[in-house]
Sequence to fold (182 residues):
Amino acid sequence: MSVLNSHSSPPQTRDEVHERLTTYAPAGCSQAVCSMEALVWLLRANSAVHEALNENLHPYGISLAQYNLLAVLKHVQGHRLPMSEIGARMHVTRTNITKLADGLEKAGYLTRVHCADDRRVVYAELSDLALELMGRIAPIQWQFNEMLWSDLSKEECRTVAELLCKLESSVINARHRSETNS
Fold:
């Protein structure tokens, strides 16, 4: 990414990004230029979406990550899961889940309950306050998300989802190949 930040102002258009990457890419790396260009736009889009969703949640006093944790719990039977299961579903570390849960517990949105059969297992459980909050926020988040994607057709949205799913598989496979070659 430093290639794109090596000049006084970062490129803003697809053509500018492509030109800058082509200039700095090693010879014979046309696939690398394409994939790096896709990565630049993926990271920029991710940043823009993340920022917009966080801004939309700001009036409610929670972050996007906290909202996601609450949403995970809202959609499971009993509104509770082991903390490790939440981390797995959100693809984040135990440390991150613990920090998120700390803030949500302090705000009264969840409680932690030790498993009676195995004290090592800690459940996070939504409070009634959290269920009420999610009842208010969820429709707003759905509408806001729809607005964020309004410049894309349904088919384009499906294509983006399919490509991101395929990218995730490619990354997982590449990491696996890298581990087995080490």
